[in-house]
Design a protein that fits this description.
This protein has 236 residues and is of the alpha/beta class. It is built from six helices and seven strands, in the order αβαβαββαβαβαβ. β1, α2 and β2 form a beta-alpha-beta unit. The longest helix is centred in the middle third of the chain and has 13 residues. The chain is globular, with a radius of gyration of 17 Å. It binds S-adenosylmethionine.
Length: 236
């Protein structure tokens, strides 16, 4: 099966011409830090019934955090029919659109969850993932907005814990300061993960994301890291 993003967007028109970049700022706040829980806030999830997400009823092999419009998610699923991929996205309109495409195109190994990754991944079994993709996250480059970033030391520690040994987290960003922030976070786990930087001119054998395609079109450089888990996390 081959996918063509343009044909997909014609067949399944996106509700807005351009989905708004940032939704309400409170959505980026972890549940435990909210004073009042707004009505349209995706609540924390402690478990999921995978038979309702993937046709083979198994748990995900890959996680795509901040799926956005999901071209990457859809392609990975189609290219790896024997693997399950779960996207996690906070923008409801992107999630609704992807649900429609996944159902319409019968892509049975892809799932999309309306969720804030900062609320934890209790629903994913430890040491079960082969890959986590964290590609072109919302930049929030100002340090005063650092708390809105989806990647924190806690999130990263949890993601590493969810990876099998030999599994990898793939990072990409077009902002040097965010790339440096990722490297600094990864340094905290240097006994557990081994990191390799991949320049934007070099292929890393993954489909391009919507944002990556836009960077390529505009001639914008981007920075990538593959962090591979080399050992189990030792108890602290
Ligand atoms: C710039 S877009 C990139 C989308 C896609 N990965 C790509 O490369 O085209 C970043 C996405 O991350 C999502 N996001 C940001 N913080 C999030 C969080 N805490 N939990 C889930 N998704 C989040 C945003 O809503 C947005 O769709």
């Amino acid at each position: 099966m081959e996918l063509d993003f343009l044909s997909l967007t014609r067949k399944y028109p996106f509700p807005e011409k351009r989905p708004r970049h940032h939704v309400a700022p409170y959505l980026y706040v972890p549940y435990v830090k909210l004073k009042v829980v707004p009505q349209n806030y995706p609540l924390p999830i402690s478990s999921l019934d995978w038979t309702k997400v993937f046709q083979n009823g198994k748990s995900p092999d890959f996680l795509d955090i901040g799926t956005g419009r999901g071209w990457f998610l859809l392609q990975i699923a189609v290219l790896n029919p024997e693997k399950n991929i779960l996207g996690i996205e906070i923008r409801k309109n992107c999630v609704d659109w992807l649900e429609m495409v996944i159902r319409g195109e019968k892509i049975q190994n892809a799932g999309i969850l309306w969720y804030n990754v900062l609320n934890g991944l209790n629903f994913v079994e430890d040491k079960s993932l082969e890959a986590v993709y964290y590609l072109f996250p919302d930049p929030w480059p100002k340090s005063k907005h650092e708390k809105r970033r989806a990647m924190t030391k806690e999130t990263l520690g949890e993601l590493i814990n969810k990876l099998k040994v030999g599994g990898s987290i793939f990072f990409a960003t077009d902002l040097l300061e965010i790339h440096k922030f990722h490297l600094t976070l990864l340094k905290e786990f240097e006994t557990i993960v081994s990191c390799k930087e991949v320049p934007s001119q070099q292929s890393w054998d993954l489909p391009a994301t919507n944002k990556e395609l836009s960077c390529i079109r505009r001639g914008v450089n981007f920075y990538r890291i593959i962090a591979t888990k080399v050992t189990e996390i030792l108890p602290t």
